[in-house]
């Protein structure tokens, strides 16, 4: 049977639309059953159903990438934006690594023409710097599964030492005392991962999205500051695919507040998407959102997670609190407690509850803020002022199994460096225990 291809593109100037038409026509001449909206979308037909059925039912989807196509995809409205939602979901559901989605670079460059959800996907270069015939041949070979003409023939297979089987690895795991294995495979590793490396990797991705996805005409929810919470489990975790990992992330939600750490949304325009071996969620959309609900988080199946969130007290919705002027210590105690409880839930769901964890919390946009709270029954400490822009607090959890038992003490040690830069402000463990009781009652759960 002839391979089927749907071509996804943005309507731009007539020259570009004609180029796409010619590409589809050339594919059909070469035996590829290419579909195009101008050919196959009938008058009166529902456009969203047409796009969804074409993307799901075609063997391949060719994405004609230009800066305008990327812009429309990254702001999830309209035809191209809706296609992005379907494509992201299809990529997460894919069980194999077959390149169903084939990006081709028509204009611009890889940074400004490829939509965010494509991540590190290789794109066939159709720009004028390369001959059309050469690029078209590469596209045809990708569709028909034919190798590059210059690919050398295979030689004889060398003799290898037999590998260690999964069964053998599981025996090693059991000898090392790791229990509660689920779908993943867990082995010990030295707890020496540089958390700074992971934090910076995640921050680089966050900064790219802030630059690329936020409209300059809308309010930037992170403009006045944000906090980043990252952790790495000190176990090697194998055998978890992205689809399975997404379900683990969903199951890890603690349900203790209305806005969970690591919340996995179901709405299509903010749904999770795969990116470079991990899963991401971007809730800020194109800007104008409330800072405390504009999360970005990234997680990887190897046991790494990083959350970025604006300060809720900067939303302008709390009585008597001016945006950018206060750090609400009560809210921060809750957020750090939530984060630790999320680590406990995540480690249990991925089968590494006994793992140590290295964490790091970084707060930015602190200079000239005062310690305060939105709780009217707690004194307002407006004499405690911060004189620096940011601070980080690294910490090690010896065993995720003990997080609930040690929660108050750990929250105290993690937040101590933050509070002290506000003119030596401090809070004792008894106050922490009473302030987080509605979130976590240590007398009942600890």
Task: Give your account of this protein's structure.
- The structure is a single chain.
- By secondary structure, the protein is an alpha/beta fold.
- It folds into two domains: 4-144, Toll/interleukin-1 receptor homology (TIR) domain (Rossmann fold), CATH 3.40.50; 174-445, no CATH class.
- 35% of the residues lie in helices and 18% in strands.
- It contains 14 helices and 16 strands.
- The chain has helices at 14-29, 37-40, 47-57, 67-74, 78-93, 110-113, 132-144, 166-175, 195-213, 242-252, 329-349, 407-420, 429-435, 442-445; strands at 4-8, 33-35, 60-65, 101-105, 124-125, 185-188, 226-233, 235-238, 273-275, 278-282, 296-300, 304-310, 326-328, 357-364, 370-372, 390-397.
- The strands form four sheets. It has a seven-stranded antiparallel beta sheet, with helices on both faces.
- The protein is elongated, with a radius of gyration of 25 Å.
- The model is unreliable at 168-183 (pLDDT under 50).
Q: Which structural class is indicated by helix and strand composition? A: alpha/beta
Question: How would you sum up the major sheet?
Answer: 7 strands, antiparallel
The whole-number mean of residue pLDDT values reads 85
Query: What is the C-alpha radius of gyration, as a whole number of Å?
Result: 25 Å
Count helical runs.
14
Point out poorly predicted stretches: 168-183
Principal-axes shape call: elongated
Name the beta content range: 15-25%
Query: Topology as H/E string?
Result: EHEHHEHHEHEHHEHEEHEEEEEHEEEHHH
Termini Cα gap? 62 Å
Task: Give the proportion of residues in helices.
Answer: 25-40%
């Amino acid at each position: 049977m002839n391979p089927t291809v749907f071509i996804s593109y943005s309507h731009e100037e007539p020259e570009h639309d004609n180029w796409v038409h010619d590409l589809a026509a050339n594919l059909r001449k070469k035996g590829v059953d290419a579909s195009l909206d101008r050919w196959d979308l009938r008058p009166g037909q529902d456009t969203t159903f047409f796009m969804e059925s074409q993307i799901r039912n075609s063997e391949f989807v060719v994405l004609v990438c230009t800066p305008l196509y990327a812009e429309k995809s990254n702001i999830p409205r309209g035809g191209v934006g809706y296609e992005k939602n379907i494509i992201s979901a299809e990529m997460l559901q894919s069980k194999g690594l077959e390149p169903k989605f084939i990006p081709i670079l028509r204009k611009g460059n890889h940074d400004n023409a490829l939509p965010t959800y494509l991540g590190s996907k290789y794109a066939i270069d159709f720009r004028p710097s390369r001959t059309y015939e050469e690029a078209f041949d590469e596209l045809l070979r990708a569709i028909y599964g034919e190798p590059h003409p210059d690919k050398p023939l295979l030689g004889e297979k060398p003799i290898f030492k037999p590998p260690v089987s999964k069964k053998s690895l599981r025996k090693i795991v059991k000898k090392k005392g790791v229990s509660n294995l689920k779908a993943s495979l867990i082995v010990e590793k030295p707890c020496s991962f540089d958390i700074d490396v992971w934090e910076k990797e995640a921050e680089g991705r966050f900064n790219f999205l802030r630059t690329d996805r936020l409209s300059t005409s809308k309010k930037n929810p992170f403009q006045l500051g944000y906090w980043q919470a990252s952790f790495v489990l000190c176990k090697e975790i194998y055998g978890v695919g992205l689809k399975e990992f997404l379900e683990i992330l969903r199951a890890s939600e603690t349900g203790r507040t209305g806005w969970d750490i690591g919340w996995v949304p179901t709405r299509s325009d903010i749904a999770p998407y795969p990116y470079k071996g991990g899963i991401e969620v971007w809730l800020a959309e194109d800007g104008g959102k409330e800072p405390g609900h504009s999360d970005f988080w990234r997680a990887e199946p190897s046991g790494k997670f990083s959350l970025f969130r604006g300060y809720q007290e900067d939303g302008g919705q709390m009585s008597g609190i001016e945006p950018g002027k206060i750090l609400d210590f009560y809210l921060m105690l809750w957020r750090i407690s939530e984060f630790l409880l999320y680590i406990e839930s995540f480690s249990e769901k991925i089968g590494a509850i006994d793992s140590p964890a290295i964490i790091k919390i970084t707060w930015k946009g602190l200079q000239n803020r005062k310690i305060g709270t939105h709780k009217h029954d707690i004194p307002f400490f407006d004499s405690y002022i911060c004189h620096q822009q940011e601070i980080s607090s690294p910490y090690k959890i010896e065993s995720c199994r003990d997080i609930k038992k040690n929660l108050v003490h750990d929250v105290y040690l993690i937040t101590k460096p933050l509070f002290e830069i506000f003119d030596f402000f401090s809070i004792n463990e008894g106050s922490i225990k009473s302030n987080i009781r509605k979130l976590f009652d240590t007398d009942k759960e600890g």
